[in-house]
Amino acid sequence: MLIAGVWLAVIGSVAHGQVRVAQWNLTNYAGGRVNEFQTAIYGEFMGRSMTPDAIILQEIIQGPGTVLQKTNTGQTSLNQFVILLNTAPGSPGDWAAVPYVADNGDTGNGLVYRTSKFQWLGTVALTANTGSGPDQPPRDNHRWRMRLAGYTGAQAEIYMYSSHMKAGSSTADQDRRTPEAERIRADILTLPEGTRYLLGGDFNVQSSNQQAYQTLIAAGPGQLVDPINTPGSWNNNFNFRFVHTQDPFEPSLGAGMDDRFDFILISPNLRGGTGLTYLPAQPGGNIMLAYSTVTWNDPNHSYRAWGNDGTSYDVALTTTGNTMVGEVIAQALIDSTNNQTGHLPVFLDLQVPARVSAPASIDFGDVPQFSTAETTIQIGNAIAVPVWKRPEYPGVFGLEQLAYSLSAPSGFTAPGGAFFGVAGAPLNQHVIALDTSSLGPKSGSLVVSSNSADGPILMIPITANVVFDGPPPPPPGNYDVNGDGRIDIEDLYSWFTLLTDVNGDGIVNASDLTALRTALRWYERADMAPAR
């Protein structure tokens, strides 16, 4: 195993990521607004583009009627959103939606994701106490279990929750938000230990002091944390202008950019620095600091309210001169609200965890005794750089470095110490040696201990067979000429005196001498004792 100091050095040197998860209330979406969403998501300005890998959604319109009708209508709306994602200029065309689950409320949740980045593993609906009465959440929550594509281990999994809490600032409105927060928090407690999770939603909270928000972030099991560490009274507060998400459309509707309603909260281990974890926007950024109050381009955080460059306080979203997204994308974000009170999307980036590449097995085959037996294997970082690298990040920033050590079974040797693998770099070569001093089959497992998200321990079966390498055994004969119980050089000396019929053909001649010399070579090589 790697020593603690080496692990710490690795953790401290690489703590970045390139998996982008977004959150967006689509504002009563039932299809349409194709160009608006396509431009907002895949439009580019000064090398920047939203281009997420997964989007948690709210306000998928289900339509009136029975649950079955809601299911069909909501799925249709969700399918329309997937189509516009896959047909957008610049889209990779690999978007899919998790199957829609009807909400007991007036709108539904959804999750869309790129199949080259995520695998969907299951959905759970949180429906307890949903209703229209006091102290009842107006809508269900949903939880999706996702795993990074190409990975197999639990450390590459993340649970994503969606929430659309009750709007309004009255005490009654707040009292209907708190039970929803409690419901989410209780469900988190059912997840396996060490699980990574996040919550995307339109919380409709005006301040971090409100009980629903406090319920979510309270310390203890199941805690969620605000990755940009920005508590306060967000509503109508100029100091929080860079994190406001509502309303980009029109202040005459009683809105304007003056509320932080839209959030992504994360599990504490998502800012742990290793594996799948929240990252800064630039190398060396400190994710524990509060989000900047003077610039949207905070190097300490990849979290962004997409489109908000901080110049839109209490008015419609700035278009002309928008320094984050430019005029075209800013206008598309405004238009995506469908001329209603709407929302900006928020997103954050996560580190792509290391993944070990190693041979499935090692087989030396038949190896001569006492020979030098070595084989070279290749081990390294299996992160596929073309799949995971985002163009806005330099080099392999955001792709976790692999750290590993080797331990060989008895009869074999492997190099000691700590080794590292950079994503996209040639694999490391390691010489594995076999002890050939004893005959027979050899087997065991080469243990690779690493920070791979597919598991910290990889067992590679290793086999070999040490065989005697010499002339074939001589045919039966009286090779112990002097009768001392051993077959050695003394028998050769004795033959010249005794002239024994060694090969048993009834004739004493040079053939006996030849047979004796062959036998001596074989027994000496095999280190064997008497012939009889």
Concise overview:
The protein has 532 residues and is α+β, with helices and mostly antiparallel strands. The chain has 9 helices and 20 strands.
Provide a descriptive summary of the structure in words.
This protein has 532 residues and is an alpha+beta fold. It folds into three domains: 332 residues, Deoxyribonuclease I, Chain A; 112 residues, Immunoglobulin-like; 62 residues, no CATH class. Helix content is 20%, strand content 25%. Helix 2 packs across helix 6, helix 4 runs parallel beside helix 5 and helix 8 runs antiparallel to helix 9. The chain is elongated and about 125 Å long.
Features:
alpha+beta; disordered N terminus; 20 strands; 532 residues; 3 domains; 6-stranded mixed sheet; 5-stranded mixed sheet
Largest sheet: 6 strands, mixed
Indicate the radius of gyration in whole angstroms: 35 Å
Reading off the top of the CATH hierarchy, the class of the largest domain is best stated as Alpha Beta
Indicate the mean pLDDT: 91
Spans of at least 5 consecutive residues with low confidence:
1-17, 528-532
Shape: elongated
User: Please, what is the oligomeric state?
Assistant: single chain
Number of domains: 3
- How do the strands line up in the largest sheet? 3-4-2-1-11-10
Helix share bin: 10-25%
Give the count of helical stretches: 9
Number of strands: 20
Structural class: alpha+beta
N-to-C order of helices and strands: HEHEHEEEEEHEHEEHEEEEHEEEEEEHH
Task: Quote the distance from N terminus to C terminus.
Answer: 51 Å
Enter the CATH topology name of the largest domain.
Deoxyribonuclease I, Chain A
Beta-strand portion reads 15-25%
CATH superfamily of the largest domain: Endonuclease/exonuclease/phosphatase
